[in-house]
Design a protein that fits this description.
It is a single chain. A two-stranded antiparallel ribbon has the order 1-2. The longest helix has 27 residues. It starts with a helix and ends in a 10-residue tail after the last helix. Strand 1 and strand 2 form a beta hairpin. With 116 residues, it is mostly helical. It has 2 domains: 46 residues, no CATH class; 68 residues, no CATH class.
């Protein structure tokens, strides 16, 4: 039973759409809870103070701010990884002509090497 569940979970997570499905499910769950009888608890939890004492300072933010800042950090980290991959591979994921437009804006003549 556990092996089948683990195998099914592994197969699901291997799919490219798994992250989007989990995100949609989490958003739907948050909408349901925010508009139910649990809404006071939900919003109260999001406003719970979460202090982080450091050596000389203390960062005191509500839970919602920590979640937003953490998700933004993960998002921009992933964007940075994608940009790095594009530079290292040398080809954008989808050739939409952005390189040609960039060369045109930079004033690179058409007859120079690298023109596509």
């Amino acid at each position: 039973m556990i092996d089948r569940t683990a195998a099914a979970l592994k197969d699901f997570l291997a799919k490219e759409s798994a992250g989007a499905i989990v995100l949609i499910a989490a958003a739907a769950l948050a909408l349901l809870v925010a508009n139910s009888a649990l809404s006071d608890t939900y919003f109260g939890t999001l406003q719970t103070p979460m202090p982080l004492p450091l050596a000389l300072i203390e960062i005191d933010k509500p839970l919602l701010k920590w979640i937003n800042d953490g998700l933004m950090a993960v998002f921009f980290f992933l964007v940075g990884l994608e940009v790095k991959r594009e530079f290292l591979d040398g080809q954008p994921a989808a050739d939409c002509g952005a390189g040609r437009n960039g060369r045109a804006r930079a004033g690179v003549p058409r007859d120079q090497p690298g023109h596509a």
